Amino acid sequence: MDADLQDSPDEIPELYRMISEEGYDLVSGWKKERHDSFVKNNTSKFFNAVTRQVSKIPLHDFNCGLKAYRSQVVKTIEVYGEMHRYIPLLAKWAGFKKIGEKVVKHQARQYGKTKFGLERFLNGFLDLMSIVFVGRFRKKPMHFFGTAGVLMFGFGALATLYLGVNKAIHLYRNEKAQLLAENPYFFLALTCLILGSQLFLAGFVAELVARNAPGRNQYVVEVDQKQLSSLPDNT
Q1: What is the pTM of this model?
Q2: Sheet holding 67-69, edge to edge
């Protein structure tokens, strides 16, 4: 909880009840009625809408500090830097799919001053891009780097082929042809060839790193609790 007294500790018992009685893995608070500036309110709405679209988690307020977790969630996920904004997303990718939300009271600031600014806004989206990339391509980095490398190399190869054929046609017709070194598109094609090769090689290196990671064979197994309880005791 923040130290500026905008969050009420009276919300904690109900958050705990939703975890202990309703079986949620994580319950996130929703500051439905916020007492912040116009810029901060609307920036937060935009930020949450983008995060909701990317994560497919139907939460309205990812950044609310009032959250309750099962102990397994806390022990499983790894939070570093400013990744606390994306704890629901980290929990989902760790296999904890039952994520709930509760409207909580948000009070006007009584002490201190806001730390919200352009730097924090940009860092939030950079962190989102980072965590989405790691979550989707952690065990298959070649799918990202290889695809980007093949597309860029293919574009460069086609552009180079076009320039070469165009030059050959002009020479065949005894027409004055521009030197390839004087054509800016030649350098663009060459850049695409080099970058495409580097991205493809980066994919290979990333695959080697991923295959040697200690958690490469860890997979989350989802179990239906009702089906589990119906199994014989000796199962």
Answers
A1: 0.62
A2: 67-69, 26-30, 99-103
